[in-house]
Write a structure and sequence with these properties.
With about 140 residues, the chain is α/β, with parallel strands linked by helices. It has one domain: HUPs (Rossmann fold), CATH 3.40.50.620. Helices cover about 45% and strands about 20% of the residues. The protein contains five helices and five strands; from the N terminus they run βαβαβαβααβ. The protein has a five-stranded parallel β-sheet. Strand 1, helix 1 (about 15-30) and strand 2 (about 35-40) form a beta-alpha-beta unit. The chain is globular, with a radius of gyration of 16 Å.
């Protein structure tokens, strides 16, 4: 754990922002940096059906640019002396977060849970639960 970054995956929601406070506190405690990760889902579509006016690659690029703008705004409001590393990936959120967590450069993951229960829990994929089960490092799940 010591000497390795804290990974904070974000979807830019209020719940994720709440978890950021914990990530900053843990990073200050262990005197390490924060690695911020946002995963852009791959767009689904087939150019042969001409449903999309733009190609899936163009849509993905647009989504990445929007995420980069949100990341820049987030960093502008983050007043800390900590080393901050930002990454935007494209793909499945669980796969990308777990890959980053298990890269050997991350000492802990601080991730938000939206706290769905009952039927809503079955309708929404629980990213925090999957990351906690698959990551090789400690995972702090924040509600």
């Amino acid at each position: 754990m010591r000497g390795k970054d804290i990974l904070w995956p974000t979807d830019f929601s209020d719940t994720a922002s709440h978890a950021l406070r914990y990530a900053v506190e843990m990073a200050n405690l262990y005197k390490v940096g924060i690695r911020i990760l946002h995963v852009v889902p791959r767009p689904m579509g087939d150019e042969n059906f001409m449903i999309l006016a733009i190609t899936p690659d163009e849509l993905a690029k647009s989504m990445e640019e929007a995420a980069a703008a949100k990341m820049k705004a987030l960093l502008a409001g983050l007043h800390t002396e900590l080393k901050i590393d930002t990454r935007i990936r494209q793909g499945d959120a669980i796969e990308e977060i777990v890959a980053e967590a298990n890269s050997g450069e991350v000492g802990m993951v601080v991730i938000a849970s939206h706290g769905y229960t009952g039927f809503a829990h079955f309708l929404h994929e629980n990213v925090a639960e999957a990351v906690a089960n698959q990551a090789h490092c400690p995972v702090l799940v924040v509600k």
